Structures
1.
Amino acid sequence: MHAPRRSFTLQQAFADSQPLARLSALVRESAERLAAVQQLIPPTMRTAIRPGPIDENGWCLLVDNSAVAAKLRHLAPLLQQALGNRGLAVTAIRVKIQKRL
């Protein structure tokens, strides 16, 4: 006989799993970092940038095209400094082109 299935939300699944909870925290932290430097990014570029993964090598930003990637790489030192001033220091900012589906 099978045990009855229990329903739970995705949020509960993330909270109940240590790896998923860590992933959720990293996603939230990445979004917070992007929000912290948003004002330093030209308004016309903002919709083409998404927060990416955070790992031991730094923070990654995902962009829609090479033009935005080039400008963002130019701004990276300024963004790193601003993050450090807010206590969100990163060792490096990587930029990767990833077209939206």
2.
Amino acid sequence: MSDQLKIKLSIANRVYPLTINPKQEEGLRKATKKIEAMIGQFEQNYSVRDKQDVLAMCALQFAAQVEQKSIDKEYVNEEVQEKLEALNDLLSQHI
């Protein structure tokens, strides 16, 4: 347990104490900054009265980004697979 690091992150005016692996600190701090920036954008662009609504919108935005990257990766993998099969067919014809 001595290799754990105790940090505090502030999101939407609330402090969250965490005990983490030191390797996670940079990623968590960057994520916190992104969340705070997104909160600011939502509050500026929309009339949002409740922080919970803003946080839900942030969660949806991040989840959508993750899902879109997964979809894009799947599409690229299929495209690469098709090209490899076409290349394999060409090689087979010339052997």
